[in-house]
């Protein structure tokens, strides 16, 4: 599975959009980009995933660059409950996930 | 949908005892389940991949005789920490993938974890 790199931490003002980048320059053609978040002492929560097209659901949007070497998770209107560690993972469907260190997002009132 | 339940959510036991953790997919069938361990302020570390009806595949450095995994049905996998010691204290998390072929392109769904403390 491709390795991903993310900034260690980010802050975002409440109500503003939170843009979380992820680099996956070694991603292979059939690997998806998955985003999860983990709030303290809970299991990771699925957010969104995509292959090459941009995706949107009720939680977030996922923008994947044309060369697929990087992506950005967008939380359109961050709330205090979005404070969490966000993980970006590149993997084949049904295959093992190898978690990186993730981005600790703090939403500031 | 796609709920994964873990039990117990926390357990405290004496050194030397064995502890069993259950992972169930409540509303879907899971060909594959995964077990992770997470130490404080660290990321999740994959321990093993569990396939229904076959032996688990362990990641390098994970002792298979120490962490026994059974995946007897499409909705249940168990992790048994044998002869647990204080250094086994950690947050154990499972995840499950929907049966291949029934729903392509599905993400893993995670349980809420089991906090294990060995005294």
Q: Number of helical runs of chain B?
A: 0
Number of helix segments of chain A?
0
Shape of chain B: globular
Spatial strand arrangement across the major sheet of chain A? 1-9-8-3-4
Shape of chain A: globular
Computed structural class of chain B: mainly beta
Rg of chain B is 14 Å
Mean pLDDT, all residues of chain A: 94
Major β-sheet annotation of chain B: 7 strands, mixed
Terminal Cα separation of chain A, in Å? 37 Å
Rg over alpha carbons of chain A: 13 Å
Indicate the structural class of chain A: mainly beta
The overall strand count of chain B is: 11
Tell me which protein chains meet in the greatest interface and how many residues each side has.
A-B, 22 and 27 residues
What is the mean pLDDT of chain B? 91
What does this structure look like?
The complex is a heterodimer of chains A (109) and B (119). With 109 residues, chain A is mainly beta. Helices cover 0% and strands 46% of the residues of chain A. A five-stranded mixed sheet of chain A has the order 1-9-8-3-4, with no helix packed on it. In chain A, strands 2-7-6-5 form a four-stranded antiparallel sheet, with no helix packed on it. The N and C termini of chain B lie far apart (37 Å). The radius of gyration of chain B is 14 Å and the shape is globular. Chain B has strands at residues 4-7, 10-13, 19-25, 30-38, 45-51, 57-58, 67-73, 76-81, 90-98, 109-110, 114-118. Helix content of chain B is 0%, strand content 52%. With 119 residues, chain B is mainly beta. Chains A and B meet through strand 3 and strand 4 of A and strand 4, strand 5, strand 9 and strand 10 of B.
